[in-house]
Design goal:
Layout (H helix, E strand, L loop, with lengths): L8 H8 L5 H16 L2 E4 L1 E6 L25 H13 L4 E6 L7 H14 L4 E5 L5 H10 L3 E3 L7 H7 L6 H14 L2 E4 L2 E2 L6 H14 L3 E2 L2 E2 L16 H14 L9 H6 L3 H6 L5 E2 L6 H4 L19 H10 L3 E3 L8
Parallel strand pairs: 1-10, 1-11, 2-3, 3-4, 4-5, 5-6, 6-8, 7-9
Helix pairs in contact: 1-8, 2-9, 3-4, 4-5, 5-7
This protein binds 5'-deoxyadenosine and iron/sulfur cluster.
5'-deoxyadenosine binds next to loops.
Length: 336
C-alpha cells in the first residue's frame, strides 16, 4: 500500500486485524511524515475551559448524568492567563476544549477569541466545544478562530446510537463537520479506538467517512473506562491498535496533523514515542490551571501532571530531541 493509494475494504480489514504488517506500516508512515513535515513536532497548548456538559455520552466522565464529578468553568481572564503562560513556553496554538456548556454564550466565546488574538496575533486558535449552530460556528470563525476539532467518534449509525443517547445523532455530527469545513475552519475529526462493541467493519466505516470529509487533523485515542459511566465495565482500548491506526492514517492522509493523544499516554507513557515514530506529529501539552485539571475527568486516571503537562515542557522537549525530533515553535498549520 503506497501513500495516497485507496486500499479495498478487504485490504483494510487485513491490516486492521493483524499485527503482522505493523513494522512495515510504521516505517512507511514515518517516511511519509518525514517527507512532508520533516522532524518537526507541533505542540498545542490545551486549555480545558469547562467541565460542564449538557450531553450524556455513555463513555464520558463529563456526562451531565455523572453526579460524582466536580465541575468548573474558567473565566476569560483565567483563559488569557493560561495563554500568556503557554506563549512564554513557545506554544503558538491554543486549543480551547470543553463540554457542551450553554453557560458560555457565543458572545462570550467570541470575546475570548478576540482577546487571545489581540495579545497573540501570531498564534492559532483551535476550538473543541462540540456541536453548535451554523451561525455560532460562523461567528467564532469571524472572531478569529482558525481550527475546530469535533470527533465523529464512530461513523456507523448503529454503533453511534449504542454509544450515545437518543437526543444525539451521527447525522447531526456529520452536518456540523461539513458546516465547519464550509465556513473555512481547518477541521479535525476522529474516532475512539476500541470503543465498546466496535468492530473491524466499524473502523473501515470510520476511514471511509474520513476520506469523504478529508479533514486537516485526525485525533484518535483508545477508549478508556470511567467508573461513573454506563460503560464502566468495558475494557480499555488497545495501544497497539491505536498506533497501527495512526500509521494507517498517515499513509491514507499524508498531510494530516495527527496527535499522539493524552488517552494513549494515559494507557501507557511508552506509546507516545511509538506513535511519533508511526506518523503522529502533534502533542497537546495540558495548560489547564492545576486547580482545575483533575476535575476534567473524561476517563479514569487521565494523565494530569505527566510528560504531556505544559509544566513539564522542558522534559518533553528533551524527550522529543532524544527521539530525533524538534519542537517546532510555530503555529503548525496543515500543509496541503
Ligand atoms: N475514553 C477515551 N476518550 C474519551 N473521550 C471522551 N470520553 C472518553 C473515554 N472514556 C474523548 C472523546 C471526545 C474527547 C473530548 O474525549 O473522543 O471527543
Ligand atoms: Fe460531553 Fe463531549 Fe463528554 Fe459527550 S464526550 S459527554 S459531548 S464532554
Amino acid at each position: 500500500m503506497a501513500a495516497g493509494e485507496n486500499p479495498s475494504d478487504s485490504t483494510l480489514a487485513a491490516i486492521i486485524s493483524s499485527s503482522s504488517y505493523d513494522a512495515i506500516l510504521s516505517e512507511k508512515a514515518n517516511l511519509i511524515r518525514r517527507a512532508i513535515y520533516g522532524n518537526q513536532i507541533f505542540l498545542r497548548g490545551l486549555i480545558e475551559i469547562t467541565s460542564y456538559c449538557k450531553n450524556n455520552c455513555y463513555y464520558c466522565g463529563l456526562r451531565a448524568g455523572n453526579a460524582n464529578t466536580m465541575r468548573y468553568r474558567m473565566s476569560e481572564n483565567e483563559i488569557l492567563h493560561a495563554c500568556n503562560y503557554g506563549y512564554s513556553l513557545g506554544l503558538r496554538t491554543f486549543v480551547l476544549q470543553g463540554g457542551e456548556d450553554p453557560a458560555y454564550t457565543d458572545k462570550a466565546i467570541c470575546s475570548i477569541i478576540e482577546n487571545i488574538k489581540k495579545r497573540h496575533p501570531d498564534c492559532a486558535i483551535t476550538l473543541s466545544l462540540g456541536e453548535k449552530e451554523y451561525n455560532s460556528y460562523k461567528s467564532f470563525y469571524d472572531a478569529g478562530a482558525d481550527r475546530y476539532l469535533l470527533r465523529h467518534e464512530t461513523a456507523d449509525a448503529e454503533h453511534y446510537r449504542f454509544m450515545h443517547p437518543e437526543n444525539m445523532s451521527l447525522e447531526k455530527r456529520k452536518e456540523c463537520l461539513f458546516a465547519l469545513k464550509e465556513i473555512g475552519f481547518q477541521v479535525g475529526s476522529g474516532l475512539m479506538v476500541g470503543a465498546p462493541k466496535q468492530t473491524v467493519d466499524n473502523i473501515i466505516s470510520d476511514l471511509r467517512f474520513l476520506q469523504q470529509l478529508s479533514p486537516d487533523m485526525i485525533g484518535i485515542g483508545p477508549f478508556m473506562r470511567h467508573s461513573s459511566t454506563p460503560f464502566a465495565s468495558y475494557e480499555n482500548g488497545s495501544g497497539e491498535l491505536t498506533v497501527r491506526l495512526l500509521a494507517l492514517l498517515r499513509i491514507l492522509f499524508s498531510h494530516a496533523l495527527l496527535p499522539s493523544t493524552t488517552a494513549l499516554f494515559t494507557l501507557d507513557g511508552n506509546w507516545m514515542p511509538k506513535a511519533l515514530k508511526s506518523g503522529a506529529n502533534v502533542i497537546m501539552p495540558n495548560l489547564t490551571p492545576l486547580k482545575y485539571r483533575k476535575k476534567y475527568e473524561l476517563y479514569d486516571g487521565k494523565a494530569s501532571l505527566s510528560l504531556d503537562s505544559a509544566d513539564n515542557l522542558k522534559i518533553l522537549v528533551k524527550k522529543l530531541e532524544s527521539l530525533g525530533f524538534v519542537y517546532a515553535q510555530t503555529r503548525g498549520d496543515v500543509k496541503r
